Amino acid sequence: MAGGKRIRGKAQEQMGKAEQKAGRVTGKDDLRVKGAADRMEGKAKQAVGDVERKTKGTAEEAKGKLRRHT
Asked: Model confidence over 35-51: pLDDT tens digits?
C-alpha cells in the first residue's frame, strides 16, 4: 500500500508542476497556485508512503528477531 501512495503522490506532484508551468505561461495565477498546492500535496503523500514503508519494515524486522529468540 505504501508503494501505491508514493506512486500516486509522484503523479500528483508531476501534474502540479505541469499546472504551475501552464499557469505561468498563460498568466493565470489561479492555475499556478493550484499547481503549487498539488505539488505540495503530492510530496506529502510520498512522505507518508515512505514512513509507512519504513514502519512496516521495522515491524517485520522486530517480528523476525522475536521469532529467532523464542
From this structure: 999 999 999 999 999 99
What's the pTM value of the predicted model, to 2 decimals? 0.73
The span from the CA of 15 to the CA of 39, in Å, is: 7
Q: How many CB atoms lie within 10 A of CB 43?
A: 15
Contact 46, 10 (CB under 8 A): yes
Cβ proximity of 49 and 9 under 8 Å: yes
Q: How far is residue 1's CA from residue 6's CA, in Å, rounded to a whole number?
A: 9
pLDDT digits (tens, 9 = 90+) for 12-33: 999 999 999 999 999 999 999 9
| Rounded Cα gap, residues 14 and 9, in angstroms | 9
What are the grid coordinates assigned to 61, written together?
524486522
